[in-house]
Amino acid sequence: MGAATDGSEIVKLSKEHAELRPVAEAVERLAKLLAERAELEEMAGDPDMAAMVADEKAALDEKLPVLERELALMLAPKDKDENASAILEVRAGTGGDEAALFAGDLFRMYQRYAQNQGWRVEVDSVSEGEMGGYKEIIASITGDGVFGRLKFESGVHRVQRVPETEAQGRIHTSAATVAVLPEAEDVEIEIKESDLRIDTYRSSGAGGQHVNKTDSAVRITHLPTGVVVTSSEKSQHQNRAKAMKNLKARLYDMQRQALDDARSDARKSQVGSGDRSERIRTYNFPQGRVTDHRINLTLYNLAKVIEGEALDDVINPLIAEDQAARLASLEDGV
């Protein structure tokens, strides 16, 4: 790092150093414990030291497997986008106005969770629902480890509750889809100008002073893949930059999905493939219950989860399950 002069190279090396340092420190701790155990073995023959040696060996024998597992987990194959920032997309699914309201609840959940993590959230594009919430909202979440913590949120989220518009008090089931895409910062995604169709249009919304009165919103269509991205903030220049960033993330995610599909089932995480059509979680408001169907996890703290305060109670078990799967594949030599 001391020999590097280029700014981007220094940033890259700093990230690599931050990733390798915990591994090096874990190796040093393990080597120290193994050395201590070897010394105890040599002392075991002394009758005066036997009781003390036995106690210390027992304590070390408890620590060693834990440290060995931690080190094995650090050395297991990782998602190279683990520390990347991410693009978050939330869209209303089946359920009409209630689905849009639920999409709004989900976005606020992620927004508050991001704030608690110290991440920055910037809305790139939004289409509001007629009764509130969002038909669609796309945002950039910038920070360290965003994608690693949110990647298992991709899929269909289902809600069961009595809608505000329901006069009879009947429980309705609605859905929203979530997609979390890693930002393709250090990856070269070739995008030819000739492959793009760029349209400008007037942003639409529910009304009010913030609705654009000029054609500043930008829609970019990637003709070879049919991928369409939009950005509808006030500045056309900023909208084009945001839309291109989102397009790059989408194309990169398509490459990731293609690679995942090519892998054997044994290498896929036990928590699911991240398929956008996979129903992953149910939020049951009458019972205050959250159920993640991939790992059969049920919690009864829905109010705190939907506020973003207790989202880690769902995320941490998902990450632990994925880590267990990666360790198993490492041990099996897959």
What this model shows, in words?
The chain has 334 residues and is α+β, with helices and mostly antiparallel strands. It has three domains: 7-75; 83-183 and 270-334, Alpha-Beta Plaits; 189-262, Double Stranded RNA Binding Domain. It is built from seven helices and eleven strands. The strands form two sheets. Strands 2-3-1-5-4-9-10-11 form an eight-stranded mixed sheet, with helices on both faces. It is flat, with a radius of gyration of 25 Å. The protein starts with 6 loop residues before the first helix and ends with a helix.
CATH topology category name of the largest domain: Alpha-Beta Plaits
**Main β-sheet: number of strands, strand sense, barrel status?**
8 strands, mixed
At the first level of CATH, the class of the largest domain is Alpha Beta
Number of strands: 11
Shape: flat
Number of helices: 7
**Strand line-up of the largest beta sheet:** 2-3-1-5-4-9-10-11
Q: Based on the structure, what is the oligomeric state of the protein chains?
A: single chain
Helical fraction equals 40-55%
Mean pLDDT: 82
Could you tell me the strand content as a percent range? 15-25%
Kindly provide the radius of gyration, computed on alpha-carbon positions and rounded to a whole number of angstroms: 25 Å
Q: Quickly give the structural class.
A: alpha+beta
Order of helices and strands: HHEHEEHEEEEEHEEEHH
How many domain units? 3
User: Gap between N and C termini, in Å?
Assistant: 34 Å
Low-confidence stretches: 206-212, 263-270
In CATH, the architecture of the largest domain is 2-Layer Sandwich
